[in-house]
């Protein structure tokens, strides 16, 4: 087992990894920008190293600085967390080349799944159902026209190297196709340095269902159920729950086994999440995230399994400590992402935390690095807390969530807590009757 792990991340996820390490008897190294010198994970870690100024490119994406920090502190391994370098295959290779263990999948799997076209090809080969569309990149409206006419309008143009909704455009008819491709290519080039795009059938009212899997270096792969991540704004997740209220037991078992079987064939190691769109009883692969997910706590709540601990143990070469049959799914869990944003305009709201009180009680968990006096910096993602609740069933979970939201105090900045308070009282959400477009097209337009 590792003696010391460098955490190449910040915020609540860095704190989450530190806590898992501390419980395993592993020392931690926190790296931080100058803007995060007073961050909670920096205060709690055994050692800390400043790796640069506030801008991500000069700190949390500064590979030489991170490697230098690992060398001077004598770390055994590097945990990339979420975002930043967590799905950078080149970084994973460099980490290994310098004698450290990268806590994540093999670089070739990160590279394959990080390219949307390559990932789709791999999914087809592995027997995972995919959305009908182009077999590869399309370079012009002429190339796309035949594909679009074959699969039918509307169609979705997506960036091959994309994510977060950037480089993604809808064409409702053939007249809109050329402009949609041009706009998607330009946006993808600006955001990702690659204008390569592909085309898929656009699904009207799908759910976003993802399956959590875990693999080790001994050929073992298990799934830990699904999560419903359909409540989204601009393709960014707002709230997640498990199990999905849209699936019955048969559909749930079907997609989970498809995902686990595919990863066994691939020889996948570490945590990973296979994401699907689900509509009219059919699942369609959209992408795979080769890392720990922001919404992992709800899976932990219903399984009782510490995913970060398992990820670290697998990276050390140990086999998964349980079989698929040992995993018991208990109750229902919901996570609310609390962002430092105006709950109406969604404008970022950095600033000093004047008051902070986290809700508590049975079945309530808050993953956050906030504290009174902390200065939320304007340079990074606006996520500042995750409120996670668990109940014996969905109704109990909803009642507990409302109570916890009412207790949550974050003073000094605007947050999206009021948005979640409204959301949990809307009949469509209460009944589980929503899709990936519902939040923007129905709830936010009221």
Task: Enter the CATH topology name of the largest domain.
Answer: D-amino Acid Aminotransferase, Chain A, domain 1
Total number of β-strand segments? 20
**CATH architecture level-2 label of the largest domain:** 2-Layer Sandwich
Overall helicity: 25-40%
Instruction: Give the distance, in angstroms, between the N- and C-terminal Cα atoms.
Output: 53 Å
Strand order of the largest sheet: 13-12-9-10-11-14-19-17
Largest sheet: 8 strands, antiparallel
CATH class of the largest domain: Alpha Beta
Radius of gyration: 21 Å
- Uncertain spans: none
Please characterize this protein's 3D structure.
This protein has 15 helices and 20 strands. With 446 residues, the chain is of the alpha+beta class. The chain has 3 domains: 4-103, Rossmann fold (3-Layer(aba) Sandwich); 132-201, Dna Ligase, domain 1; 207-445, 2-Layer Sandwich (D-amino Acid Aminotransferase, Chain A, domain 1). It has an 8-stranded antiparallel sheet with strand order 13-12-9-10-11-14-19-17. Strands 3-2-1-4-5 form a 5-stranded parallel sheet. The chain starts with a strand and ends in a 5-residue tail after the last helix. The model has no long low-confidence stretch (mean pLDDT 95).
């Amino acid at each position: 087992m590792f003696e010391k792990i460098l955490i190449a991340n910040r915020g609540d996820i860095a704190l989450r990894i530190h806590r898992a390490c501390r419980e395993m008897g592993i020392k931690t190294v926190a790296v931080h920008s100058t803007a995060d010198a007073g961050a909670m994970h920096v205060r709690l870690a055994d050692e800390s190293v400043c790796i640069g100024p506030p801008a991500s490119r000069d700190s949390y994406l500064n590979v030489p600085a991170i490697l230098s920090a690992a060398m001077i502190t004598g770390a055994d391994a590097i945990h990339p967390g979420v975002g930043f370098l967590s799905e950078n295959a080149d970084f994973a290779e460099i980490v290994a080349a310098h004698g450290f263990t990268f806590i994540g999948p093999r670089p070739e799997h990160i590279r394959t799944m990080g390219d949307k076209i390559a990932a789709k090809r791999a999914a087809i080969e592995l027997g995972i159902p995919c959305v009908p569309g182009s077999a590869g990149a399309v370079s012009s409206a002429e190339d796309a026209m035949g594909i679009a006419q074959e699969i039918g309008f509307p169609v979705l143009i997506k960036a091959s190297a994309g994510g977060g909704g950037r480089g993604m455009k809808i064409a409702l008819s053939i007249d809109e196709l050329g402009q949609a491709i041009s706009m998607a290519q330009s946006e993808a080039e600006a955001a990702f340095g690659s204008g390569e795009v592909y085309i898929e059938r656009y699904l009207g009212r799908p759910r976003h269902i993802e399956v959590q899997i875990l693999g080790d270096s001994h050929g073992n792969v298990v799934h830990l159920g699904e999560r419903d991540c359909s409540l989204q704004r601009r393709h960014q997740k707002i709230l997640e729950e498990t199990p999905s209220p849209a699936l019955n037991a048969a559909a749930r078992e079907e997609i989970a086994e498809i995902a686990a079987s595919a990863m066994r064939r691939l020889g996948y190691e570490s945590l990973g999440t296979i994401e699907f769109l689900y509509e009219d009883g059919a699942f369609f692969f959209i992408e795979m995230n080769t890392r720990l997910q922001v919404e992992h706590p709800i899976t932990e709540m219903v399984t009782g399994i510490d995913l970060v601990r398992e990820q670290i143990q697998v990276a050390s070469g140990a086999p998964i400590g349980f079989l698929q049959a040992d995993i018991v799914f208990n109750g229902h869990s919901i996570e609310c992402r609390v962002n430092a944003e105006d709950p109406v305009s969604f404008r970022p709201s950095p600033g000093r935390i004047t008051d902070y009180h986290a809700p508590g009680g049975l079945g309530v968990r808050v993953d956050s690095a906030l504290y009174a006096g902390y200065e939320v910096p304007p340079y990074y993602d606006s996520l500042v807390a995750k409120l996670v609740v668990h109940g014996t069933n969905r109704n109990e979970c909803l009642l507990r969530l409302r109570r916890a939201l009412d207790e949550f105090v974050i003073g000094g900045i605007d947050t999206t807590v009021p948005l979640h308070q409204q959301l949990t009282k809307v009949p469509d959400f209460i009944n589980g009757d929503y899709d990936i477009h519902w939040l923007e097209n129905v709830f936010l337009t009221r």
